[in-house]
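Explain this fold:

***
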Amino acid sequence: MKSRNTKISRIACLCAVAAATALPSSPSVADDVSAFWKEASPILNVRYRLETVDQDGFADDALANTIRARVGFKTGEAYGFSLLADGEFVTHIGDEDYNSIENGQTAFPVVADPDSAELNRLQISYRPNAQAGIVLGRQRINLGNQRFVGAVGFRQNEQTYDAVRLDGSPHEKVDVSYIYANQVNRIFGAGNPRETFEGDIHLLDATVKAAEGVKVRGYYYNIDLDDAVAVSTATFGARVDGAYKTVNGAKLMASAELASQSDVGDNPNDVDLLYAAASFGAGKGRISGWAGFESLEGDGTTGFSTPLATLHKFNGFADAFLTTPADGLEDYYVKGVVKFGDISFAENVVLGLWAHKFQSQNSGADLGSEFDVKLGASFKERFGAELKYASYDGEDGPASRDKLWFALSAKY
């Protein structure tokens, strides 16, 4: 497997060549070209996080103090072109009393935030008008709710893609995206054996505003991986989201999604699996609540796979189900959110509560339950704080665990 850093020069060359050949060279465009740099702005994003893990099967708890910095810049726009570049730097503070995947501390539970210093993004964008755009290079990609394709923004080292992305709006109510990627730069950091996925990845996503408050989204994701053939799959699906405001100011919300997955490439498994999800919610003022379920089918040998997803967003914050069990997974959950707004010196204070009940999709076996809580706030727009707690009781599922996070962030 090639290191992600061995491809940095190739990405840089592609971006530089594209910029140099596309920008006009006549003297009359000098002012526009200078705006490319005069309107440039820095990128600075710093996050400190404390994470603890108390997990059955380990005599010692994990305690990780890590800090992440993203540093870079974004240019202004000239003739529709702009350039963005940033590096990502992650380091631990104090003792490494946790298994970062690469530090060898296997006596502790996993906290997947290894030390790393690497190129995070290097991309050139071209937007000739408001209806179309192209992005070439290493970039962040989030599609839909990130159930199938995301940047894994919760972890300190985010997931990026070496890709070309085409976005278009052929109609005012239709948005279409096509992405081809040949490398996924995963969360484990440069130098880790699992740092990348390489292969041929085709992602097609389309959203239609079908009616007032109703969106229909269809997608086809063909993920053919050279170094993870067991999760090389093609997924075809559709999702509907709707919201309705009542005469008394309340809001009703509903969503439904269905997808089918089959094997592609050199996958040795005969995959024919379904994904289904639905949720119903209501809210008024500062309070809202949801009830829903998610089902990932399993055939006893293989579970429905989502190798590019932002997995922390789904099936509980404790990350007990980062891969779907061979017998599948059903997740029944309720969620409540209270938006307190501005309190004293804090702004946008939000409290979220979740309760999950898990079972095997195939056999109905009890896979445990989980309770999650999240409290977040911002300060002066550029600063933020977050406190999260997750408690998973495994029953016949994965090992029980309790996790706690505290994070402080600043951005420019």
